[in-house]
Design a protein that fits this description.
Helices cover 53% and strands 11% of the residues. By secondary structure, it is α/β, with parallel strands linked by helices. Helix 2 packs parallel to helix 3, helix 6 (145-175) runs antiparallel to helix 7 (179-203) and helix 9 (231-243) packs parallel to helix 14.
Length: 387
């Protein structure tokens, strides 16, 4: 009987995977921090380890390095199950010697177990490549429908309390006057959203998990850089949390990357690239344009799910372009977000009066723009779906 070690600080997620693996015939132990995980690797002698990257005491990357530094453990399979928005950590995990890296938001328990079996050579038809696993089948295809229904009901029951706690934390964060308060609040929020991401994926609410995963990464960045907490980031946090309930009933495969058509208009190449890079972090594809007249022509010829506009551009400023795109029938309700260094009250007022939906001041955290983009795109998909 093969032995599996799960190193995961979210006890709910760890116990769910432990129970599933036991049913599949594995012997399973769990550890809620990296230090305990290292001790169990030495005493339990697992055949495979599943680990998160953000762990207390010893991080996932540090644990991988410790394992790979031991000659006897060079070939021990290490399967990372974590947040893929933490791209630097994921890359560090690959470099340290991870066998596979899976996205917690995009993998069902069935897919995780398939990966475990394939890695241990217990199946013959699995894809042997070490890559981030993408959804391959709807969760309703899982033969263990009873388990899926149970997890769905449990998640739905607990979700309102989680949502209420997050909203309370955002209000408290807005009132916080010291970095110590902000650090405590963002740490609490991170733990809640971290648990939410894993539980949502297990319950089959994969679009909710997709947004939650991005929100989790943003909160971690705000925790590490409390100076970046401002009115803009607080609005983004609130908008993301308010959007989560609309995704609760979306139980099909997560859209990854999200199928969206996004236009970025900015005459400065560096600024334009910053926006498109942030969108890439959200797994969103976009087209960048430096000329507002060219952008207007493109808008008149195609539908877009989201538009980012600079304000200060030659020939036609962003406010003028927004007013003109609102005159196009297909773009009367297209979300428009202004991204500009002009952060004064008058420009904010003009952005709203010209038809803009939101405003981000340069410089901006990439993950803030990524989360804000997902909010607007997923909201738009919900609206289309109800028509």
């Amino acid at each position: 009987m093969k032995k599996i070690l799960i190193v995961e600080d979210d006890l709910i997620v760890a116990n769910i995977y432990r129970n599933k693996l036991v049913v599949e015939g594995f012997t399973v132990e769990t550890a809620n921090n990296g230090e305990h995980g290292w001790e169990l690797i030495q005493s339990f002698h697992p055949d495979l380890v599943i680990l998160d990257l953000l762990l207390p005491k010893i991080t996932g990357v540090e644990l991988i390095k410790k394992v790979r530094s031991e000659p006897a453990l060079e070939k021990l399979p290490l399967v990372v199950l974590s947040n893929t928005y933490l791209s630097n950590l994921v890359q560090d995990a690959w470099k340290a010697g991870a066998t596979k890296c899976l996205s917690k938001a995009n993998c069902s328990p069935k897919q995780v177990i398939e990966t475990v079996r394939a890695t241990l050579g217990l199946v013959t038809d699995a894809n042997p490549r070490s890559t981030v696993v993408e959804p391959r089948a709807k969760l309703t295809a899982d033969p263990n429908a009873g388990f899926q229904t149970q997890m769905r009901n449990s998640f739905t029951t607990n979700f309102p309390d989680t949502l209420a706690a997050l909203r309370t934390s955002i209000k408290s964060l807005a009132k916080a006057s010291t970095d110590e308060e902000r650090l405590s609040l963002t740490q609490e929020m991170y733990r809640r959203v971290h648990s939410l991401t894993g539980s949502a994926a297990i319950a089959g609410a994969l679009q909710l998990a997709h947004l939650s995963e991005a929100l989790e990464a943003l909160i971690m960045e705000l925790h590490e850089k409390p100076a970046t907490i401002n009115a803009s980031t607080l609005r983004t946090l609130a908008a993301a949390v308010d959007s989560l309930p609309t995704l609760l009933d979306k139980t099909g495969p997560a859209t990854n990357p999200v199928n969206a058509n996004i236009l970025v208009v900015d005459d400065e190449a560096i600024s334009r690239r910053a926006v498109t890079h942030a969108l890439e972090r959200a797994k969103l594809k976009s087209v960048g344009v430096d000329d507002p007249n060219t952008a207007l022509k493109m808008l008149s010829q195609s539908n877009y799910d989201l538009v980012f506009l600079d304000v200060d551009m030659p020939g036609m400023n962003g406010h003028e372009l927004c007013t003109r795109l609102r005159a196009l029938p297909q773009h009367k309700k297209t979300p428009v977000v202004f991204v500009t260094g002009l952060n004064d009250f008058q420009n904010r007022a003009n952005s709203t009066m010209s038809g803009g939906n939101d405003f981000i001041a340069k410089p901006f955290p990439f993950l803030e723009l990524a989360v804000k983009s997902l909010v607007y795109v997923l909201r738009g998909k919900q609206t289309v779906g109800r028509r």
